[in-house]
Amino acid sequence: MNRRERRAASKKNGIASSSTQAGSPAALCDSARRLLLAGLATEAADRCQHALAIDPIRADSLCLMGEICLHAGQLDQAIEWVSRAVRADPKAAYVSTLGIVLQRAGRLGEALKAFEKAISIEPENAEHWKNFGAVLIDLNHPDQALLGLQQALKLRPRYVDAANLSGLILYRKERHAEALEFFNLSLEAEPAQADALQLRALVLMNLKRFEQALADNQRSRQLDPRDANTHNNLGTVLQKLGRYRDSLESYDRAIALRPDFVLALNGKAHSLIELRRIDQALACYARSMALDPENPETRWGLALLQMLVGNFEAGWVGRESRWKLGLMPDPKLPQPLWLGDRSIEGKAILLYADEGIGDTFQFARYIPMVADLGARVIVAVADPACSLMSRLESVAECIPTSMATRPAFDFHCHISSLPLAFKTTLATIPSAVPYLPAPADERIEAWERRLGARDKFRVGLVWSGNPGHINDHNRSVALRELTSLLGVDATFVSLQKDVRDRDKEALSSVDIVDMTEALSDFDETSALMACLDLVISVDTSVAHLAGGLGRPVWILLPYTPDYRWMLDREDSPWYPTARLFRQTAAREWSSVLDRMRIELGALIEGWRRRSTPM
Predict the structure, then answer these.
(1) Pick from 18, 170, 372, 564: CA 20 to 30 A from residue 311's CA?
(2) Residue-wise pLDDT tens digits, 125-166
(3) In this structure, what DSSP letter does residue 550 have?
(4) 3-class DSSP state of 398
């Protein structure tokens, strides 16, 4: 902006030059502040300097000069000017401004002291409490920050900034329902806030209120269409709603605005996988890797895709990034990690269950292979699996992961890393079954007595997995959807622990034998399985238990399944006794269950013929 343009802008903002320059320091300072608010920092500085030439120790002029320097990014000068103002007149407004400047300069401890002093001078000023809370957030003291922000809201109940910061703290602490209350308060007071809408959408998404999250993201995008984060978040919520094609448009907009946006590239790759556009997904991950080769989310997503299409060699390596992602608690074992890279003969090794119980059962096949290397094998697994896993012949000692103290050992390996340690390829999966220990005869006999006469084909059922699983909304089935399957002439036995509220009423109204209260652990479940002719399960731990025991098992899979089930095949390289029943591109269960009903009817008919005396 040249001199003539600046003069015109001054006139447009009602700031007369000649008359004001000849005025008092107060008038000059007032004029300078209006110039700064109008974005005319150079003119504001000139006007403020004129005021200081008349009265060099006037506090409001000194403080304003500090604000002008702050606006220009001159932090050291800003601190000096505002400090002079405080020395001239230590009133709360100047002290609070000093705190803001110090916070911007990264001198957080000094900023906190300034805000505390401002509060001591004006304890009923909500802005001081808000500033106090904001710097505590930067100091990573969220609980103290929340107390300060709550005081700000007590003094000013519709204080938008304090409500937003409170919501942000609670969102980061994953207290989503509480965070929602603060964002609701903020947006009721001031609806047109793109940032607050964006954050509320994230909260709603974590509460699985996807349609509301979608609406907030769309409104945020309307208010600020240049924010790449909003487009990325919109893509994510569209994914959650199963609208994968629509999500690609949002991810592409985010990437267009920020070409190095790795998070959006990874989100786009995920949608492409769901659409089975595998080559494009691989290209997306390649672009992400080029931008940030060590990004754990990229390495994890790429690894799962590589294994989904059978490239296990690369996939096992990439899956080690799970620790950096924080997907599971790291036991932080001090003993050296073993990945097949050194001799363990004569050594004790702890094999630690790092993922779910299903993963433990799947990879338990490798435990005898570790023992064959001459090691003494100690296994730490989830409490419900401990009894069963302790009976593996190659296990010297089995302890629950909940145990605070562990026996001495020389090396450790996470159970899910054993395929990497043994350099497993698709062709070298150790697939002989059963490899899990058979249940005790007395337990089987006890379940046979509970079940009564074996006059019908027996089918065990599991229709839902852990609700906290990232893909649970795709892999689990509502019990009411199994109605058509239950029409065949068989005895259906529930293997479903922790029945969800939505399924409790349905369970009471269908013909399913439910004795799951007696299933105290997986040893009991395996004994009950031994009394059944077939297990039908979604992708959960029971499916892996049945496969590891060599029991016939039919597994219901979503259109894009977990990596271990791969794509498009009806058999499993991990479990010879398993059959896979997959969703089609329509992503619904009814047609899958109709097909399963026909197959089950034929299986039952064959069982009847074999069971009927000639």
Answers:
(1) 372
(2) 999 999 999 999 999 999 999 999 999 999 999 999 999 999
(3) T
(4) strand
